[in-house]
User: Fold this.
Amino acid sequence: MKFQVGDKIRKPKGYAFDGTIVSVFQNTKGDIRIVAELDGNGMLHIFSESQLEHRDNPQQIDIQF
Assistant:
């Protein structure tokens, strides 16, 4: 997978969105979707992998359920 929970990302085209990945999942068609939380705001947004890129110095966090 290109992205993992805890990765720092940015949206390079269109409106600005710098955030942290909080979820990665497949939709019912099998496409990968990424939920990112906007830095400083907390708003969540769902993206496709092609819309995002890693920011410098990505950090991983270990989330246990």
User: Anything to note?
Assistant: The beta strands are 8-10, 18-26, 32-38, 44-48, 53-54.
